[in-house]
């Protein structure tokens, strides 16, 4: 194969977007796509939202980057506004989800170190998860396609079965630092932690002095119709990784923590050149001002209910392809029948019907649209799904 300018780590498809407008993307030849993938749960306000464009343009012209050696007025204001909507007391800004996860792992280890228990370093994680691509984040997962050839990975992780509370309990030992999980697994195929599992983990943490780390990079930031997905469980974590929606397309992430859990993250223990720079902070504030309001969250819940309802009506009409709908808010998944492969159906939707979705684990087609879509987008999405199901040839299941 000839060398390409971009490392060929992605199986890139033929959609080559050059412009976006609201929920639509346009390719090099002017083709139009309804974007129900939103950069994989990133573009929460669609493409080219005026408030985001304005924040970026004005801040770029005012001050883009300085350094974290200086005071950061915009960062302080944005952090305080964000924290006020969460369980957390303090945060660290990053440029990506994986960096937020790294900071979460480091914060947990430092907590036990600061308490005089450096042996408590092992993070218990769960199978089918995705936490990003750094060495720390892949060490926290058990998926060979992400890990093979990168060994030796970081020691100090145990990967257990998701939603198995007894297994989690049995894995606690004198070296355990805490649990880390996605409140709702995204890449894994829109699989939510059960209420018994998550509340059970919280109780185990309280009983054994462990930290509960949530990775809400995909399910957080209004995606489920709550600001963060943990709110639906009536528990709070000690540490949480956030990214994707927080910047609405601008690279931004954050690791949030309670004051207690962050007690080891003292002067000099962590850093980032770009993390929390003025441009990122201006965008973050503009996005939060919109998606952090009760009205916006209520609208996401209502839109999600309508989309889910429409999907539930559609599915039985094409039961050679569709099996079930899962998810909440605008984090939805359609599980396909065994004979229909999610990746092929996503390609068929994209190439023949101009509808962008994302394949996930467990043979699921993920629907992760901009959070400000309206009924016309729902109708168009349903129409395209229906047409695609009719024209999709399903291999006979053996
Ligand atoms: C996308 C994702 C990440 C990684 O985020 P990057 O910005 O790609 O580093 C981590 N955790 C979850 C749950 C994600 O969905």
Give the key terms.
398 residues; alpha/beta; Aspartate Aminotransferase, domain 1; Aspartate Aminotransferase, domain 2; 2 domains; four-stranded mixed sheet; 19% strand; binds pyridoxal-5'-phosphate; PyrdxlP-dep_Trfase
How would you explain this protein's 3D organization?
With 398 residues, the chain is an alpha/beta fold. It contains twelve helices and 17 strands. The protein has helices spanning 38-41, 50-62, 73-83, 97-114, 135-139, 144-147, 165-170, 195-208, 278-291, 294-314, 342-353, 375-391, and strands spanning 17-21, 24-27, 32-35, 90-94, 122-126, 157-160, 176-182, 184-185, 191-192, 211-215, 239-242, 253-257, 322-328, 331-336, 355-356, 358-360, 364-367. Strand 8 and strand 9 (191-192) form a beta hairpin. Helix 2 runs antiparallel to helix 9 and helix 10 (294-314) runs parallel beside helix 12 (375-391). The longest helix has 21 residues, at 294-314. 48% of the residues are buried. The model has no long low-confidence stretch (mean pLDDT 97). Residues 96-98, 101, 130-132, 182, 186-187, 215, 217-218, 243-244 line the site of pyridoxal-5'-phosphate.
